[in-house]
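Annual report, structural modelling task.

Input specification for the iron/sulfur cluster complex:
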Amino acid sequence: MPKIIGKVWIYGDDVNTDVIFPGKYTYTVTDPDEMAKIALEDLDPEFAKNVKPGDIVVAGKNFGCGSSREQAAFCLKYAQVGAVIAKSFSRLYFRNCINAGLPAITLAESPEIFKADEKIEIDLNTGTLKCAAGIFHFPPLPDAVIGIFNDGGLIPHTRKILGID
Amino acid sequence: MGKTFAEKILGMKAGKEVVPGEIVEVKPDFAMSHDNTAAISKTFKQIGVDKIDDPERHVIILDHCVPAANEKFAQNHKDIREFVGEQKMPNFFDINRGICHQVMAEEGFALPGHLIVGSDSHTTTYGAYGAFSTGIGRSEMAVILATGKIWLRVPETMKIVVRGKLQKGVFAKDVMLKIIGDLSADGALYKSVWFTGPTIDAMSMASRMVLTNMAVEMGAKNGYMEPDDKTLEFLKNRARRDFKVVRSDADANFESEIEFDVSELEPQIACPHTVDNVHPVSEVKGTKINQVFFGSCTNARLEDFEIVANVLRGKKVHSSTRMIVIPASQQIFLQAIQRGYIQDLAKAGAVIVNTGCGPCMGNHEGVPAPEEVVLSTSNRNFRGRFGSKEAEVYLCSPVTAALSALAGEVVGWEGEEW
Ligand code: SF4
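The model returned the following structure:
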């Protein structure tokens, strides 16, 4: 897997799915480009306007708590976010990231290690992250799910397993 | 060493002994989806399989925006009805049946020892009936339609023991808000939570559902209660299938054990904008409210209607406050009509709306304007949850909601008779 290099967008603890992808849009906004435009709408209105491909969302504990809505993972993927880093993820959000093929990295260090707007580099193969504060390590994805992630998400993975592709 | 409930169920389904942390591939007994079935069916079609794996496995319940608020929601429902027809799915409930989690219980799908998944985070609710039930994503549901299978991590188990007789004016909701406030929004992250103890034993099935419903608000994978006579009585003539009660062994390995003594507990309230921002109601007494929402899969069952009707009978909702009432199901609606509760509420000035989710996730039927304050019996108060990100939502029990509706401001029970 190639390295992920991008600018960090830093947020706090308990960022919930209602601020990542508001509930009122769940049945009405379905187009990927439109979904990307409302990513993090109720948390940071500047995000969707300025995010660049490969940028990295960084947060504290319990990222993605709340609803099971997977659009909260897909909207970041469609916004071409390179990875999401958090101290911990809600279980549904973590699953949805794998299913979307969006790297979800659990990093023991707090978001405070990052400087605002700095560019960082992530190597998923070795589980390392380089930023101004130094080099940090994170646990790799569990073996049982890495196949889903490597195939680009759950749907392409399922097609492969069923021999459709 | 013995096994926990979660290890036993997932082990049975995986056909082997399992330990926490292990990932297993399993076939759930039932898989529930709601208005998101249209999106799920589109993803299913992308997989490239024509026929679904097992039509009997799936339960589809329309509730999130019923009746449709506009053309888009109407199209969404239409797409679902067509998919259900195409795939000949027998367990379909249209817009007149109720909120999915309540309907799963009433229709006898929430069964002891069953593994149930749902594309909705509050699928944890059926743990009140001894099921292992948890929320999943839409793509995962599409894959279950195609293959019947899903991967699940075997969770560690946290045991929560609740003791003490609740004071008058204090209910299951207050107990659960207290637990979430103390443990915080990630206090049970990835865990299987077993609620047990004399206070739980004394609760009705409806009250028990309040706790398992909100288990996900502290990050839990599932909530569980051991079935007892009340459970079996409820399931008589209702259970869709034979079932076997599964219990944790006494010598199973619990990751943690926490005790709550609720005998002195006061009414609790979750303040904006997180469910774990919990305070005794007395601390926020006097906060002005624009709207009371008595509804949702957490607290709009018959016992809740009884309490609210007792409080409101012969009185008037305060002129500065609106009260929206949505029964959790059509059956509850009918029973509340038969018992005269609906008339009591309507006479008091409450607005009664068709069963469903209503404003709980900001879709319709009473969403607040920016900067308005809502007091709600539902389970989530995140910023924007009710539609406007400038609105403020407080969460409380039905009795606190009813008393506050009369006062036009937040008040807890202070010894009034009803
Ligand atoms: S009532 Fe609210 S919490 Fe319950 S299923 Fe509906 S939207 Fe979700």
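The two ends of chain B are 51 Å apart (CA to CA).
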